[in-house]
Amino acid sequence: YWKHLGVSDAELQELIDAVVVPETWFFRDRESFLALARLVREEWLRSPWAGVLRLLSLPCSTGEEPYSMAMALLEAAVPADRFRIDALDISTRALAQAGRAVYGRNSFRGDELGFRDRHFETAAQNYRVSETVRQRVRLQQGNLFAAVFLPSTT
């Protein structure tokens, strides 16, 4: 099987998708998102060199974290055109779900769910992330340990 993984990208991706644990939800560890928003609003936006802020969400899993980052910044009155979030994950299955941006009740935990009313549209029995939030997140499949991400040794 090990040899087969070395020659079959499809089989390797199937293995990755089978073992990845997609345990995530919106605003998981809420304080980290609030701290990010506070830092960007109070420090970064006021700096003379502030352009478009690029943030990296890695691994982004099914999208709850990068979309939470975008919502936190928008709620902190950071203009949408002043930031972009690059979201990377190794799992094509997780990224497909993130791209659909449709979530069930399990993605919403805790008592503070007001963001759901402000940043989601109802989609049957689920919720779809608003277009404004989705536009701030660029989803991409990749492996952090792939040669393209590693520093050159020459």
Question: In what order do the strands lie side by side in the largest sheet?
Answer: 1-2-6
Helix content: 40-55%
The residue ranges in which pLDDT falls below 50 over 5 or more consecutive positions are: none
Q: Give the number of domains.
A: 1
Structural class, from helix and strand content? alpha/beta
* Proper CATH architecture: 3-Layer(aba) Sandwich
Report the CATH C-level class: Alpha Beta
Q: Report on the biggest sheet.
A: 3 strands, parallel
Order of helices and strands: HHHEHEHEHEEHE
State the CATH topology.
Rossmann fold
Report Rg.
17 Å
Relevant CATH superfamily: Vaccinia Virus protein VP39
Assembly category: single chain
Report on this model:
- This protein has seven helices and six strands.
- It has 154 residues and is of the alpha/beta class.
- The chain has one domain (24-149): Rossmann fold, CATH 3.40.50.
- The radius of gyration is 17 Å and the shape is globular.
